[in-house]
Design goal:
- With 110 residues, the chain is mainly alpha-helical.
- 73% of the residues lie in helices and 0% in strands.
- Helix 1 (4-28) packs antiparallel against helix 2, helix 1 crosses helix 3 and helix 2 (32-38) runs antiparallel to helix 3 (42-50).
- The termini are far apart.
- 17% of the residues are buried.
Amino acid sequence: MRTAGSRSGVAGALVALCNLGLAAITLLKGKIWTGLLGLFLPILVYVGAVRLARPQSPWARWRYHRARRRAEAKLARSARREERIHQPMTHARTRIQDFIAGRHDPVAPA
C-alpha cells in the first residue's frame, strides 16, 4: 500500500518529467533562453512550447517545411516575427556589448 508521501513523490517526479519534456521542445524550437529559464520558472516552458518556432530551428525544419498551406503560413509568420522582434534585439545587444567592451577594429594588413 502506498503512503501519501510516495504519491506526492510520484506526482512531483511526473511534473518534473513533463517540465523537462516541454523544455526539450522549447529548445528544439530554437528558444534557448526561454527553455533554460523555464527550468526555474515553469510558465516560461509552457509558453515557449506553445509559441511558434524560430525559422532556422530544427523544429521549423521538421514541421514547417512541408508542402502544406498551413505549414507554409506558419513558416512565413515565424520569419516575419524573426525580422520584427529578434533581429532588432540582436542588434541592440551587439551595440551594448560594443559600448561596454569597446568596438573591435579589424587589423590592417602589413
